[in-house]
Write a structure and sequence with these properties.
- The structure holds two protein chains of two kinds.
- By secondary structure, chain A is an all-alpha fold.
- Chain A contains three helices and no strands.
- In chain B, the strands form two sheets. In chain B, strands 3, 4, 6, 7, 8 and 9 form a six-stranded antiparallel sheet that branches. Chain B has a three-stranded antiparallel sheet with strand order 1-2-5.
- Classes of the chains: A mainly alpha, B alpha+beta.
- At the A-B interface, helix 2 and helix 3 of A face helix 2 and helix 3 of B.
C-alpha cells in the first residue's frame, strides 16, 4: 500500500474518531476523550496528512511517520496499519 | 493613501528572504513625495537575536516612485537581517516589522503612512510541530500532559495563523513562512 492510500485510511480513522466524539458528547459520555486528546489527535492527523511518504520530500523519516501513526492509533483508538511502500 | 501590507515567502527564494508587498496599489495617487522607506525588524524569539536588537533597513526610492505604481514590494534578504554572507534560509523566529516612510523633511507622520505589524508571524511553525511529534512519538509510553499541551499549543498557533492568512486584504498580517504549505 502506498502512503497516499494510507492517508485515505488515516482520513477515515480521524473521521470516525470525530464522529464517535460527537456521539459521546451527545449522550454526555466524553470522559474517554479528554479535551487535550482531541486537539492532540487533530495535530497528529494534520501532521500525517502533510507528509507525502517520500523521504526525499518529507522532513520526517519513514520511521518517524510510522511512530506517529502508532501514536495516532493510541490516541484515537484506531488501528491504522503502519506499513507502506 | 493607506498601506495594506502583507508578508510572504511562499517559499520565496527558497525561504531565504522575506517578501514584503503592498496590496493597495495606489502609490500613484499619493500626495506625499516619498524618499525613503524604512523597515525596522525585531525578533521576538530569544533564540534569534539581532545586533543591535532592532535591524533597520532603509530603501531609498527617490525619483523612482512611479516604479511602484503597481504596489510597492521589497525583498528583505537573510544577509540584511543576519549579516553579509548569510545565505541560509531565514531563521525560524517570530518577527515584528515596522514600516515607515520619509520625505526630505523627515518622517511622514500622516495617518496611513506607516505601519507596524502588531501581530506576529511565525516562520515554519508547521515544521516545528511535525518534528516535535516525531521526537515525541519515539516515547509514546511516556507522553505526559505537558507534552500534549505543548503540541496543542503549536497546533493552535498554526490554526490561528492559517485563519488570519485568509483575510488577504485585512490588516492582519500573519503569514506562515511555510515551505511545506500542503494543508
Amino acid at each position: 500500500m502506498t502512503y497516499s492510500s494510507l492517508k485515505l485510511i488515516i482520513n477515515e480513522a480521524y473521521a470516525n474518531f470525530t464522529y464517535d466524539l460527537a456521539k459521546r458528547a451527545i449522550v454526555g459520555a466524553d470522559s474517554l476523550y479528554p479535551r487535550r486528546d482531541i486537539f492532540f489527535a487533530r495535530g497528529l492527523y494534520k501532521c500525517l496528512l502533510r507528509q507525502e511518504g517520500d523521504e526525499t520530500k518529507d522532513i520526517l523519516t519513514k520511521e518517524d511517520i510510522q511512530n506517529i501513526i502508532k501514536l495516532f492509533n493510541k490516541v484515537t483508538s484506531s488501528s491504522v496499519q503502519i506499513e507502506y511502500e | 493613501m493607506a498601506f495594506n501590507l502583507g508578508f510572504t515567502t511562499s517559499d520565496y527564494d527558497q525561504g531565504k528572504s522575506i517578501m514584503i508587498y503592498d496590496n493597495s496599489t495606489d502609490w500613484a495617487s499619493q500626495s506625499e513625495t516619498v524618499v525613503t522607506v524604512r523597515f525596522e525588524v525585531t525578533s521576538l524569539y530569544s533564540g534569534v537575536v539581532f545586533t543591535p536588537s532592532t535591524k533597520t533597513i532603509d530603501i531609498v526610492i527617490d525619483g523612482v516612485i512611479v516604479k511602484f505604481e503597481q504596489g510597492f514590494q521589497y525583498e528583505i534578504t537573510g544577509a540584511e537581517l543576519f549579516g553579509l554572507g548569510y545565505t541560509e534560509t531565514v531563521k525560524d523566529s517570530i518577527y515584528r516589522i515596522k514600516m515607515s516612510l520619509f520625505n526630505s523633511g523627515g518622517e511622514i507622520l500622516t495617518s496611513g503612512y506607516n505601519y507596524t505589524s502588531e501581530e506576529v508571524f511565525y516562520f515554519n511553525a508547521q515544521r516545528i510541530l511535525d518534528e516535535y511529534f516525531a521526537r515525541k512519538a519515539n516515547y509514546i509510553d511516556n507522553l505526559d500532559w505537558e507534552d500534549k499541551d505543548y503540541a496543542n499549543w503549536l497546533d493552535t498557533l498554526i490554526t490561528t495563523i492559517e485563519s488570519n492568512t485568509r483575510f488577504g486584504n485585512s490588516s492582519a498580517i500573519y503569514y506562515v513562512f511555510d515551505i511545506f504549505a500542503n494543508l
